[in-house]
Design brief:
By secondary structure, the protein is an alpha+beta fold. Helices cover 47% and strands 16% of the residues. The strands form two sheets. Strands 3-4-6-5 form a four-stranded antiparallel sheet, with helices on one face. It has a two-stranded antiparallel ribbon with strand order 1-2.
């Protein structure tokens, strides 16, 4: 997954993975079995698993065999993970399965959205504080 952290003191790392996708991780076990099957049948390929993603890499394998097995792997994964909250990435030397929302671009987008929302909230508070010096509830000046 992708983790982000604001550039402030004491900020904590936050996952960009939707909580429901992380909680529904049964897909990861299903994908692991399929990936292991292809790893056993493709010499020099390997499976790597992280907290929220799993990848089958065939960069060191025979290119033709790896590409053929990658096509079969993707075809099989599309069937067994059809209702899982995941996306598949098939590049030239690997196949990866990850929950929706774990790409770096989506992580950056979430971080920027949160930052814009925080700035808008701060701006709203500042204008309220600045405008409250003697103003009435209706926004006019007090009569007197």
């Amino acid at each position: 997954g992708v983790f982000t952290r604001r550039y402030t003191q004491g900020a904590v790392w936050e996952s960009t993975v939707k909580q429901e996708a992380a909680a529904e991780a049964t897909w990861l076990e299903v994908a692991q079995e399929v990936f292991d099957y292809f790893e056993e049948r493709t010499p020099e390929s390997r499976v790597s698993r992280r907290e929220c993603t799993i990848r089958w890499s065939y960069a060191a394998a025979d290119h033709a065999l790896g590409a053929r097995h990658a096509a079969l792997l993707v075809e099989h994964l599309e069937k067994v993970l059809v209702s899982a909250p995941v996306e598949m990435v098939w590049e030239s030397t690997f196949v990866e399965v990850r929950p929706y929302g774990t790409s770096m671009s989506l992580g950056l987008l979430q971080l920027l959205d949160a930052d814009c929302a925080a700035r808008a909230e701060e701006g709203g508070r500042e204008s309220t504080e600045e405008g409250s010096g003697g103003a009435t509830k209706g926004g006019g000046t007090p009569k007197g």
